[in-house]
Amino acid sequence: MNAPPPPTDQQPEQRAIAGAALRLVSMAAISAMLALVKLAQTRGVSIFESVFYRQLFAVPAILLLLARSGRWESLRTARPLGHGVRMLLGIAAMSLNFWTMTLLPLAEATTIFFAVPILTTVLAALVLKEPTGRHRWSAVVVGFIGVLIVVQPGGGALPVLGVAAGVFGALMTAAVTIQIRQLGRTEPTLTIVFWFSLTSLLPLGIAMLFIGTVHDPLTWAIIAGIGLLGAIGQLCLTGALRMAPVAIVLPMDYTGLIWSALYGYWLFAEIPATATWFGAPLIIASGIYIVWREHRLARRAAAIRPPVR
Fold first, then answer.
1. From residue 187, how far is each of 182, 246, 253, 290 by CA, in Å?
2. Which of 9, 39, 176, 305 is deepest in the core (most CB within 10 A)?
3. For residue range 2-14, what is the model confidence (pLDDT) as tens digits?
């Protein structure tokens, strides 16, 4: 039996490139999924129906990952209550985010979602009591200025209901991030994703008994696209984080603005407002800086941590 080849300096770099590429694919898939959510809504598909089918298709994708890894034992959990809280927050966040897509132009809705790292930093400081220095608080301020430029409060450029749904959706997504951090102290990522997808089908399935409707074949094809693209995005997101650090893959998320602008123009004749192109760079720069700062501090802490003997 031949010994495995020794690791080379190129292997980490190749994995980082592959991880970034997977994240790019996931952003293209997720942006297309959100565009289809908006398109499905114009054909009579409710938001909760879209959320249900998005989750329904996620379960086979996760089972595929488990089958390939053989880590079925990772599904055991000692924190059912924590997973229940994550499920409720996740359904609320996804429903608000889907709703925002139906109320706002795709590019503007996507730009508001970019505030999630900013809001996560604020919640981490308030809820988890994480130390947050002047660097990250400065990035938070810059990011909020970008959000204000995009939404133009009082200017009437965007509908108030859509802006409110987007901001609350981003806030709930940030709350999900905080809950995942807490669960992640004892639970593997795949365990968290699996139990969220599975448990969310219970309340969504009950709701479908009352709101589920019959659709024409084209609408069913759009719904299938939502589920399939959501599953692809989920698989690529998980794979990207397994191959490369967060600081490398997360900046790829901002390509979602390009996809949203393209889908918005192609499907709905939407042209992003000038304010969006001025505010988005501030939000994006703020989010990237926050992630880079956390990554740098984590590496510094790991470097000074004494080795385990």
1. 9, 18, 25, 25
2. 176
3. 444 444 444 666 6
